[in-house]
Structures are given as structure tokens and as C-alpha cells.
Amino acid sequence: MMNIKKKLRKDVLERRILLSESEWKSKSESIENALLQLDVVNQVNNIASFVDFRNEVSTNAINRWILTKGKSLYLPLIDMSKRSMTFYKIEDLNELVRSNYGIMEPNPLVHEAVAPNSIDLFITPGVAFDPHGYRLGYGGGFYDQLFVEIKSEIPKIALAFDLQCVDELPIESFDRRITHLVTETGVKTF
Ligand SMILES: Nc1ncnc2c1ncn2[C@@H]1O[C@H](COP(=O)(O)OP(=O)(O)OP(=O)(O)O)[C@@H](O)[C@H]1O
Ligand SMILES: [Mg+2]
Description:
- By secondary structure, the protein is an alpha/beta fold.
- Helix content is 28%, strand content 24%.
């Protein structure tokens, strides 16, 4: 199971790294705009998002939109030693700090942690997605753990380029399907 996942992550990430800067930018723009049109996003106030890393779909416009609209933005901090992910309320994106891995993260000294059950909607990253809404992440199991914790009806919207969609993924008992997948060619709901 782990070897299949490892190989899939490697294959998809090798495809994604081939996107040119301009392709990354224009596809990201399409995805961000499509997400911001969704009723499910506009209807809620407490939104968990993420900050894109390397050549993930850009989330900068989304995160700025959430703040501009007066909604509450929550971003994740991963604690590798505790093997846990916590969301913090962010009011100013300039207050994020760069982690050792180069990811922009909340600062627990400045930001307030919130319980996942106070969040209305999760915008999630991921490496690969299948036609049924199952996702493969980077291997930490952090989002898998989160999704089993929250109410099943909470919207979970993943952002990805079409090249991250695969025919089949290995599914485990703890996997929960996302509710929406937004790519540069449209929105799929599950
Ligand atoms: N609910 C859970 N509680 C504890 N451990 C879990 C849970 N869900 C998954 N895990 C563990 O997390 C590890 C990584 O899982 P997996 O390879 O599916 O991660 P992933 O989907 O790539 O990562 P992520 O969820 O962070 O995007 C596995 O060893 C798995 O057993
Ligand atoms: Mg998983």
C-alpha cells in the first residue's frame, strides 16, 4: 500500500513540476476564480485554507479574498513531533512565518488556535485525486485524520491541476471523500 502511494506521489509530482511558470499562473487563476464563484464558499464565514507550497495551485487570491470579504481565515500549522495539524485564525497574511521546510505558517505566539469543529469549510491541498473524490496527500495523514474528526457534511474542497487526476487510488478505511474538486477545467462534486 505505502509503495503504491509513494510511486503515485512521485509520478504526479514529477508531472506537476513540468508546468511552466505561466501555465502554473493561468491555471491557478482559473481554479481560484472557479472556487470563489461557488455558493458553498460564499455562504459560509469560517474558512480553512492553506498557503501553496512549491508549484501547488496558488491560493494567494483566495486567502486575500476571504479577508477582504470580512470572513474568517484559518491556516494550518503542522507539528511533526506531535504528528498533528492545528488551524489558527489569520487576520494579516504578512504575519505568517516561514517554516524550516519553506512553508508559510501561523505563529502560535501570535495567532489563536481553533478547534476544527468551529470551521464551516475546508479548502485542501493534495497530490492526486480519483474520479470518486478520494485524495492522496503528501503522506503525513494530517488531512485524513482531520476529515475523520469533523462532521461528515462539512464541505471539503480540494484544488488541483487536471494532471493530478488519476483513474484509481488505493483506498483505506480512514479515507473520507472530498465534496468538491476544482481544477482548471471545472468543478466536480461528489
Ligand atoms: N485518522 C487517523 N488517525 C491516525 N492516523 C491516521 C489516520 N488516518 C491516516 N493515518 C495514518 O497516516 C499515515 C499517512 O496516511 P496517507 O499515506 O494516506 O497520508 P496522505 O493522505 O498522503 O496525507 P494527508 O492526509 O496529510 O494529505 C498512515 O500511516 C495512516 O495510517
Ligand atoms: Mg491519505
